[in-house]
Amino acid sequence: MPVYSDEAVVLRTARLGEADRIVTLLTLAHGKIRAVAKGVRKPRSRFGARLEPFMRCRLQLFQGRSALQIVTQAVEISAYARPIAQDYGLFVAASLMCETADKLIADDSGAQPAHYRLLAGALAALASRRLAPWQAAQSYELRALAQEGWRPRLATCVVCGKGEPERDLAFFSVPLGGMVCSIDRAGVGAQCRPLSHEGAVALRSLLMGDWAHCPVRENHQVTAIVEEWTQYYLERPLHSAGLLG
Ligand SMILES: [Zn+2]
């Protein structure tokens, strides 16, 4: 299939020579790919602004002999980039999401339709302001990592396995992967962050995409946990286990 079509979200772009650009794309059917868009930086490019970060397009691609594919056509599906570029808060959230997708998905990982839909949905919610930037970004980060197998344990203590009301789940440990009760907290010490009941509700609703129960105000305990969770698990060797098999 030297020429094929697919839909994609633009994750990242880099200059190539005088007028071209390399675009990193998360596609619906072919996973993450890198492709050259020729002449895209010329004033009258046939691609217009369709190959900017955060855009969602239907593309025609040519698979040549090189590792890089070539974009031959781009039709806009959703111009998330325009509202996002006009608002710094939206831009920061969208950049974080696309950077996470780029780091999380290997070039040769094959089709990632669930991740594609998650990212496209999060960018749509952000661009339409259906969700606050922190809600869209934190929910995306938690769900993207959960899809890769890093799902925080929220209903029971990661040390003793007991839940409420038997135990008071008032702490969260990123390295241990979830909630810690106030009794076991002493044993794991510095690895724990306090998490209020409201914070636990927020974390659960962000992970589930349960907007009916998600607070409208950002919870700073939750923000710190999601930030640490994302950094901690993005630094793990994500695909090394597969290479060993
Ligand atoms: Zn416990």
Question: What keywords describe this structure?
Answer:
three-stranded antiparallel beta sheet, alpha+beta, five-stranded mixed β-barrel, 8 helices, OB fold (Dihydrolipoamide Acetyltransferase, E2P), binds zinc ion, 245 residues, disordered C terminus
Count of DSSP strands: 8
Number of helices: 8
CATH topology of the domain at 3-149: OB fold (Dihydrolipoamide Acetyltransferase, E2P)
* Oligomeric grouping of the chains: single chain
How helical, in percent, are the residues?
Answer: 25-40%
What does this structure look like?
The protein has a domain of 147 residues: Nucleic acid-binding proteins (OB fold (Dihydrolipoamide Acetyltransferase, E2P), Beta Barrel), CATH 2.40.50.140. The longest helix is centred in the middle third of the chain and has 17 residues. A hairpin with a 3-residue loop joins strand 1 and strand 2. A 5-stranded mixed beta barrel has the order 1-2-3-5-4. A 3-stranded antiparallel sheet has the order 7-6-8, with no helix packed on it. It has 245 residues and is α+β, with helices and mostly antiparallel strands. The two termini are 29 Å apart. The site of zinc ion has 8 residues, from loops.
